[in-house]
Amino acid sequence: MIEFRHLRYFVAVAEELNFSRAAERLHISQSPLSRQIRELEEMLGFPLFARDRHHVELTAAGQVYLEKAREILTATEQARREAEQFHVGRKGSLSIGFVGSLTYRVAAILQTFRLHFPEVHIELRQMKSTEQMQALYDGKIDVGLVRGAVANPNLVCKGIAEEPLVAALPGSHPLAHKAAVSLGDLAPHPFILTPYRSGSGYYEIVTLCCKEAGFVPRVAVEAPEILTIVAFVAANMGVALIPLSFTHLHAEGVTYLPLESACTWNISLIANAHGPKQILIDHFLAHARGGINFNEDALT
């Protein structure tokens, strides 16, 4: 059976037209090279070279075979390089699920990731945390971005960052002139929150922060998502705590203030414990961590 080495040896001899120089080029001795060429010719059933003690030249069949052998070697090398790019995670595809409250963070992460991995195709799917877990089981996504931590023995959950929450107040609010507020300052005022058990984790994190500050927030309005919450704050319907990344909206009639004591909402990556895209996921995780930079100074 003709093997890859036969083609390499043949091309070397055909290009050098000298067995000694070809052997040196291939880093083998001349005798094994001569045997390999004879073996190739025997398997083909016709001579590739016309040779005597002092001269080597290609036969007409050898010239045709050289062209095709070069094509095979080139195609094989191209295939190797292409496959290597996938193996090391330089190429491929990544389907990413994310919760809605991470929309602006995902954009920043992908901007950083694509600078280093421009040939990786990205597909984004917005879904709740529970939907992401099911999608990972079903193979519909490769990785998920969620708020908080996910405790599941079948999934890997790795922290990416802790995003600060800030106070969102109507511009006319009596606290709006302050440089920063405490959660205690907000306690007497009506809050705007997502519904209880909304599945986003937002309700839980806000109420937990308030509880740690010694009060239960008085919910005046329930809104389905953070963008709507900001709109209701602008309409002077209450105050809210929102992720720092949403403050870039600069909604008219809304003032954003940092909190005097830290209140954060974790961002995590979830994925299957073992999978064929592990290297690519590791690359994404590294750049996800490096692609998030929270700067509360932007509020002031």
UniProtKB/TrEMBL annotation:
Question: Which family does the record claim for this protein?
Answer: Belongs to the LysR transcriptional regulatory family.
GO cellular component terms listed in the entry, alphabetical order: protein-DNA complex
For whether the record's keyword set contains DNA-binding, the answer is yes
Q: Which organism is it from?
A: Alicyclobacillus hesperidum
Query: Mind telling me which SUPFAM superfamilies this protein's record contains?
Result: Periplasmic binding protein-like II (SSF53850), Winged helix' DNA-binding domain (SSF46785)
Q: PROSITE patterns under this entry?
A: HTH_LYSR
Q: State what protein this is by name.
A: DNA-binding transcriptional regulator, LysR family
What residue stretches are annotated with the HTH lysR-type domain?
2-59
- Which controlled-vocabulary keywords does the entry list? DNA-binding, Transcription, Transcription regulation
In Gene Ontology terms, what is one molecular function of this protein? DNA-binding transcription factor activity
**Which PANTHER family does this chain map to?**
HTH-TYPE TRANSCRIPTIONAL REGULATOR CYNR, TRANSCRIPTIONAL DUAL REGULATOR HCAR-RELATED
